[in-house]
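Section 3.1: Structural characterization of target chains.
Under the original work plan, the team committed to producing a structural model for every single-chain target entering the pipeline before any wet-lab resources were allocated. The record below documents one such target. The sequence was received from the expression subgroup and is listed exactly as submitted; it comprises 337 residues.
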Amino acid sequence: MKAMRIEAWGVENIRPVELPDPSPGPAEALLRMRAVSINPRDLIMAQGGYGRMAAQPPLIPLCDGAGEVIALGEGAAGVAVGDLVCPNYSRTWLQGLAHPTAHLGAHGGMIDGTACELMSIPAEALVKAPRHLYAREAATLPCAAVTAWNAIVEQGDVGEGDRVLIQGTGGVALFALQFAKLRGAEVILISSSAAKLETAGALGADHLINYRETERWDKAALEITGGIGVDHVVEVGGAGTLDKAINAVRPSGAISLIGVLGGGEAAVSLGKIVTRNIRLQGVTLGGRDMFERMAAAMAEHQIRPVIDDQDFELQELGQALANLSKGGHVGKVVCEL
């Protein structure tokens, strides 16, 4: 089979390789991968940025993908030949929130990932794709969508009438927008691009702020909420935006810290967090059970992922990852096989 593989740390060292075709072992399913998608996590991983949370090269990258079941090993249950399925982010994270062994089976991290033509995987680590989605759409779900679902629904418990502020128009941000609207929330979304804000408005964002034109977007959010502050912030900027997120959230509100695109070392006002009783919650991914609940909701409400209009083939994976850091994409970037 063909695969892409990190031969040494650095996106420039991702190479196409020919590997033996796998076959399914007991309780495993064999997938013919149809599409994969990329995340900032994959770029960091390719650069060796996860330390002991990553295997050493050579390593097949990526945790997102969708494929068709083409064979089953003895005792495999829960899926059938012909099903379109997604590998869960991690084979060792089937239930609940993060736990000590959750990341040990992470695809494209501790074990080989989805950037390959064929993949043999325990059937219990698969989730059936929502029936209304094509493979390239389903391939976007395991990382960004589940993380956004966790932030908004599972841990965030966003409800009818809540006010949610979302940063940006990347994969997590736009999934968070869709899930927040599903829950009946009023959404404020910030971006530096008028075109990207237009996309967010079409998805239902109620208030749009261009943070290049309105640098103090935290003050603008306070004005929108009558000086009270938002109930929930989906924070992806890290050091670059966290202090403003703290300013924008109401007393006893919550900040879901998902990304650190603006840096991982932040100087913030701890006093504000304490005296205003703000909950600062780190959010990352989720178990297979969470993925299944999200997939069911997406199917029921016909929610479709937003996919960037850049087209990449699998052999262009290194280029796709390198482009990710430039921030020009909207939603998810997909490579089709």
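The mean pLDDT is 93.
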